[in-house]
Write a structure and sequence with these properties.
transferase; alpha/beta; single chain; 14 helices; 13% strand; PyrdxlP-dep_de-COase; four-stranded antiparallel sheet; seven-stranded mixed sheet; transaminase activity; pyridoxal phosphate; globular; aminotransferase; Aspartate Aminotransferase, domain 2; binds pyridoxal-5'-phosphate
Length: 466
């Protein structure tokens, strides 16, 4: 597969393509003006409220506030606590607030604890590593395996790949999109270090039957990780608002850890997530120490070395500024918007919502390829996430969708999109399923595909003529 990388490299017609460090610097004002131009343009894409997920707050005043908090501590390395004791306060309080949100107060017999990582993948990697290490130390497991629903986030596959853990993938019930608990029961064995469930999963926004998984894991002393990366900072407020959200947190005795991203519905800056444990001992299994290093005694809690104090300060600032009341207010608007959008989808007999979703809903069609709907909606500026097996598209409702007029536009555009799809039943749709965006005209062709895709992201400046 050949891709014209020179065409892909962005902004090449407007700005010089840098290939070496400039000989002399430029003025701060000029650079900031250039950055502002790019950011302002790029913001227009999602400010319309037509973009699924990714911009969870979308409130420029909120972002400005977070950036001010970041600016005060962005230069600090939180690994060096002697010069930034504030990081100890921020980190400790973020963890305490998150533990409280997930009802860690219900925990008896163990000491709950947590850590802050760089994102959802960071939290998942640390969790899985902790279970591997804990399983080795406490259960003597040398060939660990883990069980996850087929719908679990690829970060778990990445963890299994990186840490040499056998991955057992549980099928889902296609009707509910929830994990087949009987399959999990049959496949747990003495080498299982952790079972995973999602609240909610990325694809369908549905919540796995965590209490049933808990019955399996508690009896066998196996870990149960709940992936609340996406829903963690939203679902607890939905529950308080009276939505039908099954309990998924530390109130369930088998839940041993939860990942919840501050950089999603926590409304913090990108680059932080929380990882919470029922038992401090599981977290402590990944502590790293090298006391004999010639560079001095070295210790770090997890995989990262230096981390930015700015991101932790901004996450703390987001949580404290909003408080329970603020999160509740945003959650109310998001759940109501999602319900209204789902009603628009349900009004078309050709469309079918998968499972029983809450804030994120996914839909398909048995009458036509749903990617025809996506094709049409893209022309209208909508950016959904594409799925496969079956083909489906999803909308993770965030605050930008709660603006006035967005639901009305969605309803109107969707009706026209369905009409368009019906007219194109026999044709091949233009769009397909790729997590995080689709480069034009690419089709999956084994290993070549990822190299071409990554080359566009990382190397395309090399192909711009000098
Ligand atoms: C986003 C997401 C993740 C991974 O988080 P990153 O922050 O992208 O690394 C994990 N699980 C779910 C359900 C998610 O939506």
């Amino acid at each position: 597969m050949k891709i014209d990388e020179s065409n892909f490299y962005p902004y090449q017609s407007r700005f010089p393509v840098l290939r070496r460090l400039p000989e002399t610097g430029r003025s701060r004002e000029e650079i900031l003006a250039e950055l502002r131009a790019l950011a302002t343009e790029e913001n227009t894409v999602w400010e319309t409220g037509k973009c699924s997920g990714t911009m969870y707050s979308g409130d420029h005043e909120h972002y400005h506030f977070l950036n001010q908090a970041f600016a005060l501590f962005g230069h600090e390395n939180v690994l060096q606590r002697d010069i930034c004791p504030s990081a100890t306060r921020f980190e400790g309080e973020i963890i305490a607030m998150a533990l409280d949100l997930f009802n860690a107060g219900a925990i008896q017999g163990t000491t709950p604890a947590g850590m802050i990582t760089t994102g959802g993948t960071g939290s998942i990697l640390h969790a899985i590593l902790a279970y591997r290490e804990y399983g080795r130390k406490n259960r003597g497991i040398v060939h660990p395996n883990m069980i996850q629903p087929e719908t679990a986030h690829p970060a778990f596959d990445k963890a299994a790949h990186l840490f040499g853990i056998e991955l057992r993938k549980a099928p889902i019930d296609p009707r509910t999109t929830l994990v087949d608990v009987d399959w999990v029961a049959k496949n747990i064995d003495d080498n299982t270090v952790v079972v995973v469930g999602s609240a909610g999963n990325y694809g369908y926004g549905t919540i796995d039957p965590i209490s049933r998984l808990s019955e399996l894991t508690v009896a066998r002393k196996v870990g149960l990780h709940v992936d609340g990366c996406l829903g963690g900072f939203l679902l607890p407020f939905g529950e308080r608002l009276g939505y039908d959200i099954p309990v998924f947190d530390f109130r369930i005795p088998g839940v041993t850890s939860i990942s919840a991203d501050t950089h999603k519905y926590g409304y913090a800056l990108k680059g932080t997530s929380t990882l919470l444990f029922r038992d401090k001992e599981i977290r402590n299994a990944i502590y790293f120490m090298m006391p004999e290093w010639s560079g001095g005694k070295y210790m770090s809690p997890g995989m990262e070395g230096s981390r930015s104090g700015g991101l932790i300060a901004a996450a703390w600032a987001a949580m404290v500024q909003l408080g329970r009341e603020g999160y509740m207010r945003h959650a109310k608007a998001i759940f109501e918007t999602s319900a209204a959008m789902q009603a628009a989808v349900r009004s078309h007999p050709e469309l079918r919502i998968l499972g029983k979703p809450t804030f994120l809903f996914s839909f398909t069609s048995d009458a036509f390829d749903i990617y025809h709907v996506n094709d049409f909606m893209r022309e209208r500026g909508w950016r959904f996430n594409g799925q496969q097996y079956p083909n489906a598209i999803h909308m993770a409702v965030t605050r930008p969708q709660t603006q006035p007029g967005v639901v009305e536009n969605f309803t109107k555009d969707l009706a026209e999109a369905v009409a368009y799809a019906k007219q194109h039943v026999g044709d091949a749709p233009r769009s397909g399923a790729i997590y995080g965006g689709i480069p034009g005209g690419m089709t999956p062709e084994a290993g070549e595909f990822i190299r071409a895709f990554m080359a566009q992201m990382l190397d395309s400046h090399q192909a711009v003529p000098e």
